[in-house]
């Protein structure tokens, strides 16, 4: 039984600009922290895997002094954990409000995969509560219940390390030749490829200009039959969707030769 493994942010919904960024900034304001990330600032932070890790990157000596934070590392990490809990709550409230609709084709491809008996999973560096909130509001309760969710601190090393994907494979009970990943970022692609997984990339608002070498298929979105049309940006696997990505296209990616095995 094949598996379809999704990243969350930027894949299920374009969450970064309209979800995570305002949630971070609202958290900073609530805690009286002397920082407000612009879209350009946040684009740089996205190179760091994980919300707590992005918050930890603030802790320069200058910031610690300006914010009146304790100097010992343990107390600083307690502060980061508190910020992150509040940020997650703000974010999940945003998701529940319907502010972050699913990306084109997500609900359709999930429904088709579920109907054909595929295993479904999300593998993300985001907090599990955030991932489950996005999953619920993008595919609905019945389909969300079909997913296994691997998220947050379930592994120590975040993307681009492959750990979250190797963990997912082990717990899904499938091999690298039985799973396809859908990602949106270079970091996510690097993680999937390091786990030897064939990967479809659906570029998102922050990742369109990133390097996706190693992806089997790169598209603008999964597309819809009577809506947003898929544009193919590159297709080393030779899979060319016609207007929108179908489950047959995903299966063709799964059956395509792994470029690393051919080299």
TrEMBL record:
Q: What InterPro entries has UniProt attached to this entry?
A: CbbY-like, HAD-like_sf, HAD-SF_hydro_IA, HAD_sf, PGP-like_dom2
Coiled-coil region(s) at which residues?
none
Q: Does the keyword Hydrolase apply?
A: yes
- Is the keyword Hydrolase assigned to this protein? yes
In alphabetical order, the GO MF annotations are:
hydrolase activity
Which keywords accompany this UniProt record? Hydrolase
Q: Which residues form the signal peptide?
A: none
Could you tell me which SUPFAM superfamilies the record lists for this protein?
HAD-like
Q: Which Pfam families match?
A: Hydrolase
- This chain's protein is named HAD family hydrolase
Q: From what organism does this protein derive? A: Cryobacterium gelidum
């Amino acid at each position: 039984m094949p598996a379809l493994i999704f990243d969350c942010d930027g894949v299920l919904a374009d969450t970064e600009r309209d979800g995570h960024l305002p949630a971070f900034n609202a958290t900073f304001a609530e805690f009286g922290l002397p920082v407000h990330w612009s879209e350009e600032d946040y684009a740089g932070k996205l190179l760091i895997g994980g919300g707590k890790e992005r918050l930890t990157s603030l802790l320069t000596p200058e910031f610690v002094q300006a914010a009146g934070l304790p100097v010992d590392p343990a107390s600083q990490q307690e502060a980061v954990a508190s910020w992150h809990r509040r940020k997650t709550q703000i974010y999940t409230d945003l998701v529940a409000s319907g502010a972050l609709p699913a990306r084109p084709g997500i609900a359709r491809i999930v429904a088709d995969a579920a109907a054909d008996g595929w295993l479904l999973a999300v593998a993300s560096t985001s907090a599990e509560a955030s991932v489950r909130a996005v999953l619920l509001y993008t595919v609905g309760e019945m389909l969300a219940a079909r997913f296994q969710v691997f998220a947050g601190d379930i592994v120590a090393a975040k993307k681009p390390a492959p750990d979250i994907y190797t963990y997912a494979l082990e717990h899904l009970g499938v091999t690298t030749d039985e799973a396809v990943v859908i990602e949106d970022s270079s970091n996510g692609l690097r993680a999937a490829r390091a786990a030897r997984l064939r990967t479809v990339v659906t570029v998102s608002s922050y990742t369109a200009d990133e390097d996706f070498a190693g992806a089997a298929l790169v598209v603008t979105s999964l597309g819809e039959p009577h809506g947003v049309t898929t544009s193919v940006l590159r297709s080393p696997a030779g899979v060319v969707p016609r207007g929108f990505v179908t489950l047959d296209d995903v299966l063709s990616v799964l059956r395509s030769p792994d470029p690393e095995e051919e080299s």
